[in-house]
């Protein structure tokens, strides 16, 4: 096995492990912190600096992960 082939095999294995871990994370914890309010459910207005409820997460501080959203969409589309 050449060094390049060994490197590609190692990178492929790493990619498979990272993908499997993300799938497991989406299965165990389908909701992550909202990227707009960082899980606090409150955002600061741009000019007045007053906090108000976050409209991106409907005031929960949680957002569905992209992987879980893709899984739900595929499950809805496929019979
Ligand atoms: Zn939010």
The major pleated sheet works out as:
2 strands, antiparallel
Widest beta sheet: strand line-up: 1-4
Order of helices and strands: HEEEEH
Small-molecule binders here are:
zinc ion
Low-confidence stretches: none
Q: Percentage of helical residues? A: 40-55%
> What distance separates the N and C termini?
43 Å
Radius of gyration, taken over Cα atoms and rounded to an integer in Å: 19 Å
Question: What brief labels describe this structure?
Answer:
two-stranded antiparallel ribbon; elongated; single chain; alpha+beta
Tell me about this structure:
With 79 residues, the chain is an alpha+beta fold. The chain has one domain. The chain has helices at 3-28, 66-77, and strands at 31-33, 42-44, 51-53, 62-64. The strands form two sheets. It has a two-stranded antiparallel sheet. A two-stranded antiparallel sheet has the order 2-3. Strand 2 and strand 3 (51-53) form a beta hairpin. The radius of gyration is 19 Å and the shape is elongated. The termini are far apart. The model has no long low-confidence stretch (mean pLDDT 93).
Q: What's the SSE blueprint?
A:
Elements: H1 3-28, E1 31-33, E2 42-44, E3 51-53, E4 62-64, H2 66-77
Antiparallel strand pairs: 1-4, 2-3
The structure holds zinc ion.
């Amino acid at each position: 096995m050449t060094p390049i082939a060994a490197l590609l095999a190692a990178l492929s294995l790493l990619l498979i492990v990272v993908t499997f871990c993300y799938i497991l994370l989406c299965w165990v914890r389908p909701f992550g912190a909202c990227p707009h309010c960082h899980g606090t459910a409150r955002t600061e207005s741009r000019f007045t600096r007053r906090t108000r409820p976050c409209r991106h997460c409907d005031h929960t501080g949680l957002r569905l992960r992209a992987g879980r959203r893709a899984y739900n969409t595929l499950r809805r589309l496929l019979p």
